[in-house]
Specification:
The chain folds into two domains: 180 residues, no CATH class; 69 residues, no CATH class. Helices cover 33% and strands 18% of the residues. The chain has eleven helices and 15 strands. Strand 5, helix 2 and strand 6 form a beta-alpha-beta unit. With 350 residues, it is an alpha/beta fold. It has a ten-stranded mixed sheet with strand order 3-2-6-5-4-1-7-11-9-14, with helices on both faces.
Length: 350
């Protein structure tokens, strides 16, 4: 019997969204209680449906869509977008029209995210076995053993799904590869090599959909009916966390505004004054959500040039897993880059 997997990937709320209708070429208000994705499968095949929730991630968005669309099937991707970047919006409209990707456009903030993401996941339970949630800068792959590059092809992905127990409640993605720092703000998936495979840091989780009760923003602590045992998997995240300086600063600012930590349409001086008032909350014991973003943006506003210098000097770092310590950091894995170059040619009219 075929297994149906739905992949929930996110960073923004979907409340009050509008949907791009590729047939009629128009935007329409979507019913928040209607199905968020239309997963399909054929006998004997494992099918993954992806929901990506994104904002102003061009051109990384293009590579994300090509990688996961080619991996899972474009018709099984549903994107919820809050971009005001014309290139991102037009690309999503074209991909909807040509390849059948479902796209919703929304201007909602992030405060409702956990509740809305959970609502989406619970709505999917009748047609999904497992639920993942990732961000736009996280690309799925499969760990192929210490000392070997990650696998980014469809057969490897399906094989990793096929060995998961249908009776287990919660799983972890134990492996990651951190992309090198972007020096220019192009598409990192086309130009960046990766650090070695890492196992440090809290792993992200994914869930048996039938037993899921809640999904959290970072997917580090979401709930199931018991949440007592966390099973492992072979999945790996290729992470484009080390963004170029301009995108890094912009994302910090937009996240804090979206969460109403900072006021919108304010000057840098006004933002600095607002952060000074709540400094104790993000410097002593992390008494607020996204305290690391507030602290980083506060340091930037205090001394922009110093933060820019530190940012440009930063390189991938961390504990490499067994068997990789003798490998040069930053040159181990170029498989995703090579794959994206091929996909750019394959979908040249995309």
């Amino acid at each position: 019997m075929s297994r149906l997997i739905c992949l929930v990937i996110g960073a923004l709320s979907i409340f009050g969204s509008t949907r791009w209708n590729s047939v009629h070429g128009e935007l329409s208000v979507s019913d928040p209680k209607s199905p968020r994705a239309h997963c399909t499968h054929t006998n004997g095949a494992v099918t993954a449906c992806a929901i990506l929730i994104t904002r102003n991630e061009w051109p990384l968005l293009r590579s994300w869509v090509m990688h996961h669309g080619d991996l899972l099937g474009f018709e099984n991707i549903h994107i919820i977008d809050d971009s005001d970047d014309v290139l991102a919006v037009e690309y999503l409209r074209r991909s909807s029209s040509k390849y059948g990707i479902s796209v919703d456009f929304t201007k909602a903030g992030m405060l409702q995210l956990e509740d809305k993401m959970t609502e989406v996941a619970l709505d999917m339970r009748s047609r999904c076995d497992f639920i993942f949630k990732l961000d736009t800068d996280e690309f799925l792959g499969v760990h192929n053993g210490d000392g070997h590059p990650a696998q980014v092809d469809q057969p490897s992905f399906r094989a990793a799904l096929s060995v998961l127990s249908s009776n287990a409640e919660k799983f972890k993605i134990p492996f990651s590869q951190l992309a090198g720092r972007q020096m220019t703000c192009g598409d990192p998936a086309l130009a960046t090599t990766f650090d070695g495979i890492r196992t440090d840091g809290p792993p992200k989780h994914f869930y048996n959909s039938k037993l899921l009760t809640k999904i959290d923003l970072g997917t580090h602590r979401g709930g199931t009916t018991t949440s007592s045992v966390i099973h492992t998997s072979r999945f790996l995240i290729m992470h484009f966390q080390l963004k170029c300086h301009e995108v890094y600063v912009r994302n910090l600012k937009e996240a804090l505004i979206s969460q109403q930590v900072l006021p919108g349409n304010a000057t840098d001086s006004e933002h600095l004054a607002a952060l000074v008032k709540i400094k104790n909350k993000f410097t002593k014991g992390c008494g607020m959500s996204n305290c690391h973003k507030a602290s980083a943006y506060y340091q930037y506003l205090l001394n922009p040039e110093e933060v820019r210098r530190q940012h440009s000097d930063q390189a991938p770092a961390g504990v490499l897993s067994t068997g990789l310590q003798d490998r040069p950091v930053g040159v181990l894995f170029t498989g995703l880059r090579d794959r994206m170059q091929k996909l750019m040619l394959k979908y040249a009219d995309f």
